[in-house]
Amino acid sequence: MQPLTILFPVLLALTVATRLWLAARQSRAVAAHADQVPAPFADSITLEQHGKAAAYTRDRLAFGRVHLLFDSVVLVAVTVGGGYAALATAVGRLGLPELWSGVATLAALTLILGALDLPFSAYSTFRIEARHGFNRTTPAVFLGDLAKGLLLAAVLGLPILTVVLWLMARAGRAWWLYAWLIWVAFGLIVTYLWPRFIAPLFNRFRALEAGELRERLTRLVAACGFTADGLFVMDGSRRSSHGNAYFTGVGRHKRIVLFDTLVERLEGAEVEAVLAHELGHFRLHHVRLRLLVGVVTSLVGFALLGWLAGRGWFYSALGVPDPSLAAALALFALVTPVVTFPLAPISAWWSRRDEFAADRYAARQADGAALARALVKLYRDNASTLTPDPLYSAWHDSHPPALARIAALAGAAG
After folding, report:
1. Closest CA to 243 of 375, 336, 373
2. Which residue from 363, 371, 373 is spatially nearest to 414, judged by alpha carbons?
3. Looking at the domain assignment, is residue 93 inside a domain?
4. 203-213 mean pLDDT
């Protein structure tokens, strides 16, 4: 038996145990503070709303634990349990050339894993989100999104997958470098196409109508030196009552997008402050740095994949007796999240640091008090917990805890 055959299940078990332990801590922390609204929020959030947020958080945690255990069983079955090997054997009976057999196997694996996850997605949408008053997705919209997602995956995913497998077979030992270059180019192309051609497949976008809000936001965008195609409002309310704002695209083809739920609930100064926060990520080069880190990380990943693809023990230890190029891609994609899980706190810390910095930028460019008011409304309307467990938050949360964030904004305003 290969050492990795034992090591991988052990790492997976440790990962699952850690995630379950953190989730239990979070659930206890939220329940312990459910009967009292933290003082800084007492004037804006009622005890009933605070209790709703606690119930929503605990329901999501309970559901997440079941989902995690199911996914872990599936992962073991697909890898060391021989599931991928059995699938590859079944596809191999079709007598396809190696390249197309690999593409078919990976496509089938993706469809199977997606089908296994579909009941969880549906339950989350139509039971948990609906139970707490957030879901506005109809079964028709849900199925339509599923069909569009599958079509988009086929149109975009199958060509890049075919190219990578072809390079692995034909480009020699440096195939991983060429594959990485194509992967980066592919990512840039999708990012460029997303605002104009892909996102409209799922949501409707309209230009922000003329008026005081548009004038206010236009002045802010100009003051921040941000070049965009325009200000758009997205019909987020079609699927959920949650609110948000973001910008998307690259170069001069970036778009600023506001959820219609955000525009409806916030005052003009508050929307301006939220947008100033998002623009802060741009002006402080957070987006550019994350793209750069992503490019470097993907280079390291492809280099590691290139090395592992030539090691027979990598396949046999993970339940694949007959090495293949497609198997290398599948096993690497399945195993990587388990191996990199210990790095999650570093990523979360980096993200929270950037959020604090963007808040400070927003307080200089707009109204810090308005941003604080907007955040409190978003916490309330999105049923976000105000009292997370510190360790859970440090491991998982990309945004600072509510109390720390509002306190930091108060300090910036002072």
Report:
1. 375
2. 363
3. yes
4. 91
Say whether 260 is catalytic: no
Question: Is 359 a catalytic site residue?
Answer: yes
Number of domains in the chain: 1
Q: In sequence order, what are the residues at sequence separation of 6 or more whose Cβ sits closer than 8 angstroms to the Cβ of residue 32?
A: 387
What range does the domain containing 97 cover?
1-135+296-414
Which residue among 278, 354, 355, 389 is the active-site one? 278
pTM of full prediction above 0.85:
yes
- In which element (H, E) is residue 258 found? strand 255-259
User: Residues 325-370: pLDDT tens digits?
Assistant: 999 999 999 999 999 999 999 999 999 999 999 999 999 999 999 9
Q: Which of 270, 272, 355, 359 is catalytic?
A: 359
Ramachandran class of 320: left when φ > 0, alpha when ψ lies in -120 to 50, beta otherwise: beta
Laid out side by side, the sheet with 245-248 consists of 205-207, 231-234, 255-259, 245-248
Residue 364 placed within a domain: yes
pLDDT for position 296 = 97
For the stretch 129-169, pLDDT in tens is 999 999 999 999 999 999 999 999 999 999 999 999 999 99
User: Would 241 be classed as within a structural domain?
Assistant: no
**Pairing relation of β-strands 255-259 and 231-234?**
parallel
- Specify if 267 maps to a domain: no
Q: Where are the alpha helices (DSSP H) in 154-267?
A: 158-170, 175-193, 212-223, 260-265
